[in-house]
User: Fold this.
Amino acid sequence: MSRFRWGLVGPGRIAGTFAQAVAGLPGSCLHAVWARDLAKAQAFAEQWSVPNTEVVRASNELDAFLADPAVDGVYIATPHAQHGEFIAASLAAGKPVLCEKPLVPNLAQGQTLVALAQQRQCFLMEAVWTRFLPVYAQVGEWLRAQRIGPVRAMQSSFCFSIPFDESNRCFAPALAGGALLDIGIYNLTMTRWVMQQALGECPAPLSIQAQGVLAPSGVDQRLAATLQFPGGVSSQFVCAFDSQAENALHIYGERGRISVSAPFWGASEATLVLGDAAPLRVQLPPAINGFEGEIEEAQRCIRAGLIESPHISHADSLATLAWMDEIRRQLGVRYPFE
Assistant:
C-alpha cells in the first residue's frame, strides 16, 4: 500500500509533534505544509523533509495547497478560532480532515461542519490523541469487564501555571482562549469515554454545574465543574492556567478504582485497585510520541471510505461542544466572533 500523504495547516508546536509521529510511521509521510507566512511554512517544511526521499512542499496559497492531488488528508493545528474556516475549505475541496481539539469553539459551528462533512461524504475527525493511547486500551478492558463494578464517580485535574498575557492564545478572546477549550476538553472527552466503556454509551448529563475565575481578558483562567449522570454517576474536574494539580484521572467503582497517572491526557501508566489486594499497575508507553494512534485511525478510516471514526465520532465531538457551551454560559465567557 502506498504511503498516506498528509498536508498540514498551521506549523506550530503541536504540528511538530504531529510531524514527528508521521515521520515515525512507515505508512505515512508529510507531503505539504501551509501557513499564511510563507517563510514559516518553508522553515517547517525544511525541518521535516527527508533528503533524497521526501521533500515537503511549502505554501501560503490555500487553494493551491488544497488542490494538490497528492494530499490524501489535511491535519489542522491552527488556534481554535481558526479551525472552522480551514475545516470548511478542506471539506469543500474534498480533502479528509483531522483537526486538533477542540474541533471548533462552539456547538453551532460544529453542527454546521459535521453537516458539511456528511453532505460531501468526506471524513472529519477531532484529533483527541488521548483516546488512542495504549494505556487507555487496557483501562477500557477493565471498564468493559466491570473489574471495579459499576462506575460511581470520576475525578480529574488538568492545571498548570502561566503568566497572564493577553497576546498569548491561551488568554486571547479572539483566538477562543481559555482553560476550558484548551485543556478542560480533555477532562470532558475522557468523562464521555469512561461512560461509553462502562455503559456502552454516554447518556446526556442530568445537570452541569460550573464555577470559575476569569482572566482580565474575559476568558476562563480556572474553573471547576461537576456533571451528574443518570444512576447517580458524577464527574468532577478542575482545569486552570493559574495553579498546580495532580493532573491524574481517577475512576471509582463499587468494588474498586482505576487511577490513570499524570499527565492523564498523555499517560503511560494506570493502576487497578480492588479491595485489599495488591494494586495491579500497568505501563504501556506510546510507540512514538502518542500522536501515532489518532493518525493511524484517521488513515484507516479514510482508506475505508468512512466519514467519521467510531472511536471519536461526530456525536462525541458535538456532545463535548454542547457541554463546553453550557459551562462557558455559566461562567459568562463569550467570544467576540459569536
Summary: The chain has a mean pLDDT of 97. The longest strand covers residues 151-159. Residues 179-199 form the longest helix (21 residues). The radius of gyration is 20 Å.
